[in-house]
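REQUEST FORM: STRUCTURE PREDICTION
Request ID: SP-0412
Submitted by: Lab K.M.
Chain count: 1
Length (residues): 136
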Amino acid sequence: MRISIYIGAIAFILTLQVNGQNYIGLHKDEITGLMKETQRDFKLNTGIINKAYNYLKYEDKVNEQTLLFFLDEDDCCTCVRLMSDYTNLNDVTDTLNSKYTRTGENTWTYKEMDVVYTVRLEKEEWYFTVITKKEN
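STATUS: Completed
RESULT:
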């Protein structure tokens, strides 16, 4: 069971940010379609609505990972946050180190189609978050 969680976390990060699939800039309809096709372990959670933010919330089957796509007023993705249990931290960090250019202790960058993206890992008390967005 643990191995499948690790593989899921790594596969998600690779799919999300490396293998040509970057969700930033996509419309929410495109995101929901791609998530159904490529991330079958993640299910859309519409049970909680936060009126302060426009976002799509996905959770994995065992609730150890949560994925948030933050959307602008046109329902296009501006930021992606993957929140995960600490059991995945080493594998996720290794993947980030192998695929991106490290620019700080918990920060990486990559370039896709002349756009630079920043990937930041934030450690919280009970979980960690990987935040991906366009560099300003």
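NOTES: The longest strand covers residues 115-123.
Reviewed by: T.R.
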